[in-house]
Amino acid sequence: MPETFVPPKRPATPDTEWIAEYRNYALAAAFIAAFFEGLGHAWERGEIQVLVALTLASAISLYATLDAKLHGKQYERAFAWFMMFTWPVALLAHFVWTRRGRGVFVYLGWGTLAIVTTSLGYGLAAALAALIRA
């Protein structure tokens, strides 16, 4: 009786659940930073705005790096640093690179949500200022 061929076991696929979870945390951090951006503008506090700007850029860079990994693409370290300083344009390039034409709509959706979140922070700060003055 001939021996049957059994192919060797393939290495296990990498676990990507943690990548998706951390990507979501980075996205949440970006929206929280956008909310505090609105607060900082309403209160006209420069130190809050600088801290928030760095946090927002870091969160978006981390999100894009993890998102690219989920889509089977890898960032060069130089591009990750480049994204830190040019994130409004580089994020659009990232979405187009990972999602093709649909990436423009994803970018517009996230941008709209970020503007709404920033406006909520600004509105809350303005309302609190009006209550304090009254």
Low-pLDDT parts are none
The figure for the number of domains is: 1
% residues in beta strands: under 5%
Described by the principal axes of the CA atoms, the overall outline is elongated
Rg, please? Answer: 21 Å
| Major beta sheet summary | none
Distance between the termini: 94 Å
Number of E-state strands: 0
Please state the structural category: mainly alpha
| Strand and helix order | HHHH
Q: Figure out the total of helices.
A: 4
Round the mean pLDDT to the nearest integer and report it.
Answer: 90
Helix content: over 70%
Describe the structure.
- The chain is an all-alpha fold and 134 residues long.
- It has one domain (17-133).
- The chain has 4 helices and no strands.
- It has helices at residues 17-43, 46-70, 77-99, 102-133.
- The longest helix is centred in the last third of the chain and has 32 residues, at 102-133.
- The radius of gyration is 21 Å and the shape is elongated.
- The model has no long low-confidence stretch (mean pLDDT 90).
Question: Key features?
Answer:
134 residues, mainly alpha, 80% helix, 0% strand
Concise synopsis of the structure shown:
The chain is mainly alpha-helical and 134 residues long.
